[in-house]
Amino acid sequence: MWSTISALAVLALWLCPSLRAAGRIEALEPHMGTMFRIVLYADDPVRAHAAIRAAFDRVADLDNKLSDYLADSELNRVCTTAIGRDVAISGDLYTVLVASQSLADRTDGAFDVTLGPVIRLWRTARQTGWQPAADEITSALQRTGYRRLHLAGTAAHPTIRLDFAGMQLDLGAIAKGYAADEGLRILRDRGFPQALVAASGDIAFGDAPPDKPGWETGVDSIDASRESFTDVLRLHNAAVSTSGDTEQYVEIDGVRYSHIVNPKTGQGLTHRIGVTVVAAKGIDSDGLSTAASVIAEQVGVPAALALIEKAGARGIVVVDVDGQWKKYETPR
Fold it and tell me: Residue 142 CA to chain centroid, in angstroms?
């Protein structure tokens, strides 16, 4: 599900004074239910703004394909037309679904883009403050399962088939990372490699800024009240994503339910967990941060870190243990 438009406390771009030098250009636009930020360094502002426009247009195009909010998005259309039959899909949708299904296989379903019916229940719960009834969750879970989504054809001519009616795909845990990747690719293709594209908690970095070893990104704990960062990452040609319940949650009868849903139980996560993942691409860091959050609650933090490490990524997991924040990291 797309994030609300806000600054994500668990991951924020730390723009220190040195980044306000001449040649630095920044732009903001709302897309995918959040604010997309582009920062780049350029000697030619006219060409730079044209490149930024092209990058934002690319993100808007992906929103029209991958959103579960837009009624006429490609994603929502296939949820009604691909029932029991193969339907042609775009290369973008295919790319994101291939990555999603691969992660689902590697996590035994801890990451599952077919969870849309359950996610919509919890979306309503956050709006109304009412917990979904047990029978509603049971019914919704019966319309989920990543093994009920089938991809076929070739990369040039891909197709999708869903097993039965009522299935709803939700790419909110992976699409923004892919959109950040694509926005950055557009900027690089147009001659601006020293750039970044940030989509709330998902950031794709290009080459480092002038005279700097990397872009500086502050990572905080899951405590939204903190005013300073507990870690600073310096990254280039990489992506970082954070998942947590700092802003998207609902508290019902004294229990705090995250917007991240456990695919096995249909319940929002109830343990305070924040996961930050650094990977080569945003499509990888975005999905991994959500999957690791689920696994950390299901199995434990060591299993979550093992998932991140096995994927060739790096990660920080912050958990609330009896009111105290504890931080764990992958060996790398």
Answer: 25
